[in-house]
Amino acid sequence: MKNIINTLPTNLLCFSHLRWDFVYQRPQHLLSRFAAYFKVYFLEEPLFEDCSEASLSFSPREGNIFVGVPHLPHGLSEQEVISTVGSLLNQFLQDKDLEDFAFWYYSPMAMSFSEKHTPKVTIYDCMDELSAFKNAPKALKDMEKKLMKYADVVFTGGHSLYEAKKNQHANIYPFPSSIEKEHFAKARKAKAEPQDQAGIKGPKLGFYGVIDERFDIELIRGIADARPDWQIMLIGPVVKIDPATLPKNANIHYLGQKTYKELPAYLSGWDVALIPFALNESTRFISPTKTPEYLAAGIPVVSTPIKDVVNPYGTKNLVHIGATALEFVQAIDQELAVADRKQWLKKVDTFLALNSWDMTHQQMQKHILNVARSKNNISVAS
Hints:
The chain is α/β, with parallel strands linked by helices. Helix content is about 35%, strand content about 20%.
């Protein structure tokens, strides 16, 4: 650790399109680990409020993490927003030594107000193909091209995304979704379901995550119609789609957003877990974190043919793959008839043995250290 502290900057400034207190996912898992030796500033997108002057506030979170939010007045044009956030960033950095900073980007759009600053190390963790998402900014692709030139090292959120990006940077590495096995393994031993789920009787199928344009609404409707006695638990916020378009079957239960800490208790009551993503541009390169999390919980999984789920999970027969409601129903029927899953669980645990956020963090750390060492003219680790 001493060698790391002596080589790396002591501050990390992350530019994110996601909010720290939204869904606990890749950024939180990784940055909470990097916070062991970085002071992490997590800069979110602006909030527009009834205020006369723009300001930037930071508030602490657990560990060495500080969440920054630009507060802007209503009515600013797009260019005024960029200029104002840029001014707030300039003020934040004006008395700081950028040689003692690493910049970590999740949002390429942050290049529009941050590119004038040159930190010691620049990291781009490309967790999704954001340009394919609904309401993506028109300038996003151009900003990403600029970020690719600016970054010292690039990580991708899966192998599909790596294949799509690998020729755009000379120092790029795939890091698919990881897990905290011990956290989700609690579902295998939990004895009591949360109150809002415990009273629902019948075989339980579950999904947790953001319900947005990636979610296959008609697939869920088809499963619910085909088996009215099955109960479908949907956990998570509804974002970027009209809630009125969601199916209202009596056997579909929208339980709302839950904390990361609460998830194992909900999983403990599920018979089968679902990955019901539509096949469209927004899901072309995704590597769903929930795949290994469901498996760590010991729950059979049925997924649509998302490329990074098919390989490796489908090809290794760890997860069922189905493209239609009928195929999902058949796979679920098959799993509900299984009496003993010991052999499958053994196979799952063997596969997951080398999958953890701790390992991902350590491997990323090595690549970042290599960049820092090369800039310090120190021999680069092999």
